[in-house]
Amino acid sequence: MIYLFCDFGLPYTAEMRARIAQRAPGLWAEDLLVDAPAHDPRLSSKVLQGLTRDFPAGSIFVCVIDPGVGGARRPLVVRCDDHWFVGPDNGLFEYPMRAAQKDMQAWEIVWRPRNLSVTFHGRDLFAPVAGRLAKDISDGGGAMGADHNPRGVPPTPWGCATPGEAVDATGAIRRPDWPDDVFEIVYFDGFGNAFTGVRAKTLKPGGRLIVNGLSIPFHRTFSDVPESAPLVYENAYGMVEIAVNGGSAKDRLSLCLGDAVQLI
Prior knowledge:
The chain is an alpha+beta fold. The protein has two domains: about 1-165, 3-Layer(aba) Sandwich (Rossmann fold); about 180-264, Bacterial fluorinating enzyme like (Elongation Factor Tu (Ef-tu), domain 3, Beta Barrel), CATH 2.40.30.90. The protein has helices at about 10-25, 40-50, 95-100, 120-140, 250, and strands spanning about 1-5, 30-35, 60-65, 75-80, 85-90, 105-110, 165, 180-190, 195-200, 210, 215, 230-235, 240-245, 260-264. The strands form three sheets. The protein has a seven-stranded mixed β-sheet. β1 (about 1-5), α1 and β2 (about 30-35) form a beta-alpha-beta unit. The chain is elongated. The chain starts with a strand and ends with a strand.
């Protein structure tokens, strides 16, 4: 199955689905998240790590938070354990790579389509590669065609890189200076709940979270506090989250993406 993770919605996601369907007829791409932190691979990477951890083996994630599109950054295919990620080399895959338990490997995408938009690699490059990868996983291979091999080198089974151009996943594409826990608000869901980039296991029993001068207590779930009261809790992805029971933490607490948080 293919899932889209990006910082844009319609009509662009529909165009990406169409390109995927051309390479893998009968396969439908689902939206995982289409409002990821815009232009911010670092925050988006933390969200991506949390959302993808429980997906089945063979899942493919087309990830497009790509402010450097058309520039020097490389297009990649990354395998983290049994999950595949397709997207730009800008740190977006750092946290999924850190979460890999068994194996990770990365390849630079060397194929280019005949018509490649400078500003929409999600549609013209990443989506076709993901479709081809999905097809090869399901049926064992096949050729992309002569136009998919401009360098004259036989492609790997997914047709996106040559074995000699594997990228060292422990080297240039990594971001060792990024902390394991991101003490910031990294995403707001449709309820106005604020995801942080902090693992819940770092929160002490009876602890509190400080954000914008507000001290918010930790509770197990929403009903543990009165209606309209704020709380901090462990969300479904094992991360610290800020909420208001029956309301929007984003609006009620005047929170913004990137606001710093502190645990005490």
